[in-house]
Write a structure and sequence with these properties.
single chain; mainly alpha; 15 helices; about 70% helix; globular
Length: about 425
């Protein structure tokens, strides 16, 4: 093993902290992070926001660019760009996951793909700012989504690769909090450069690439060139998008719960501007000022929920109760505007829903990592699971629009999201491999 390599295990299934104890008092695993993993735990929360920042800034800027390029068809053009970008996102993680599972190099399986994907995403960000027309902008946005989703696949695989089960809640808390903060703070950072959007893209591209490069350099993996590798085949490639739900029921229920909770959250988040106008009765200018404030109101709920939920699940040794409570919070928060159709109702709803989603994010990765079927396919299986987070971004806006048209108004979204959140919470109960 090279001198610089991290002596952590290849798949995180055993560490010195997890070894069978000879002292009965040592039967309970220590909740202290072992020295071999401290650098990973300290740096992962800072790299976790980078991809969400890139996504959220792109969404913010693209809406402005589309309106400048073709104001008369801005809604349909933006919908098309987002749909194609979501397709790119869905392809990226499973493809890179199956490739990284089979990668053997002196730098390990994940780091080469993280670095290459980040370079692709950052380059695409730069070109977004220079896109001369809608066609070029669409291609650039698809590459942003592909690049940073391709980064997130191997990055997510670090958890089951290297983190022992009794520390996954703590790790997932830091990573989950970072991802949520990135999504919330991205548009705020982007708004500093609305007078020079190409410069804004360049700043975000440089910052994200710098942080990811530092992470790859500071958290080395071990040389895995001597490990056996299954050959790549077209069948393996197609399998990157599928895990048999009959043979792996826990995986299926984990996927279903994540899909429902992300879907319900995406329904409300996509149409916040229209909800403020058509349901509460604000003017467009009032809604444009109010919606960013709702994100700020949600921030304390996210911070408190994520910092409490993950460590608590480690202490209890249970993940399912936290996910259950988080889904019920999302469900309850969605009902508030029905009783209080006002700005106050939207603010209270944002806080409660964000608290539920923050608690869910804090333990989601830890729970999902425990339902993966095969240690040799962590990257591929996580890529499939991550489809449960990206698919809703394509399906939820279309489904929400159908609900609005079918019931003649945005009020119908709230009970539907409430039911979806409740079902997403219940979906974890059949999982048998996680308490």
């Amino acid at each position: 093993m090279p001198k610089h390599a991290d002596p952590g295990p290849a798949h995180g299934l055993s560490t010195t902290a997890d070894a069978a104890p000879t002292d009965p008092q040592a039967a309970r695993p220590s909740h202290k992070v072992p020295p071999a993993l401290r650098r990973l735990f300290r740096t992962a929360p800072f790299v976790a926001p980078m991809a969400p920042i890139a996504y959220s800034v792109t969404v913010y800027y693209v809406a402005i660019q589309v309106e400048h390029m073709d104001p008369d068809a801005k809604t349909s053009n933006l919908a098309l760009i987002n749909a194609l970008a979501a397709v790119a996102a869905m392809l990226a993680q499973p493809i890179v996951g199956v490739l990284s599972d089979r990668t053997r190099s002196r730098y390990g399986a994940r780091r080469p793909w993280m670095l290459a994907s980040a370079c692709l995403g950052a380059t695409a960000l730069l070109t977004c700012g220079l896109a001369p027309n809608l066609a070029a902008l669409t291609v650039c946005v698809m590459l942003v989504q592909f690049g940073f989703n391709a980064f997130q696949g191997p990055f997510s695989a670090l958890l089951p690769d290297r983190v022992p089960d009794h520390l996954r809640g703590r790790y997932s808390t830091g990573v989950g909090l970072g991802m949520l903060l990135g999504a919330v703070l991205g548009p705020i950072v982007g708004s500093l450069f609305t007078d020079d959007i190409p410069l804004g893209y360049a700043v975000i591209a440089g910052a994200t690439l710098l942080v990811i490069v530092l992470f790859v350099a500071l958290v080395p993996d071990r040389d895995n060139r001597g490990e056996p590798r299954r050959p790549f085949s077209p069948r393996a490639f197609l399998a990157a998008f599928w895990v048999n739900p009959v043979r792996n029921p826990d995986f299926f229920w984990g996927f279903a719960g994540r899909f429902l909770l992300f879907g319900g959250y995406a329904m409300l988040n996509t149409y916040q501007l229209y909800l403020a106008q058509d349901y509460v009765g604000l003017t467009l200018e009032q809604a444009k000022r109010t919606v960013p404030l709702l994100s700020l109101v949600a921030l304390p709920g996210i911070l408190v929920a994520t910092t409490v939920a993950g460590p608590l699940s480690d202490r209890l040794g249970r993940r399912k109760p936290v996910v259950l409570v988080s889904g019920l919070l999302i469900s309850a928060g969605a009902a508030i505007p029905l009783a209080l159709p006002s700005v106050l109702g939207l603010a209270l709803s944002s806080f409660v829903v964000a608290s539920g989603f923050g608690a869910f994010a804090a333990v989601d990765q830890a729970l999902m990592s425990s339902v993966l079927p095969n240690p040799e396919d962590f990257g591929k299986d996580l890529g499939v699971l991550n489809l449960a987070a990206t698919l809703p971004n394509t399906i939820a806006p279309v489904a929400a629009a159908g609900i609005v048209h079918a019931f003649g108004g945005y009020a119908a979204l709230y009970p539907v999201v409430g039911v979806i959140g409740f079902l997403g919470a219940l979906a974890v109960l059949p999982i048998r491999s996680v308490r």
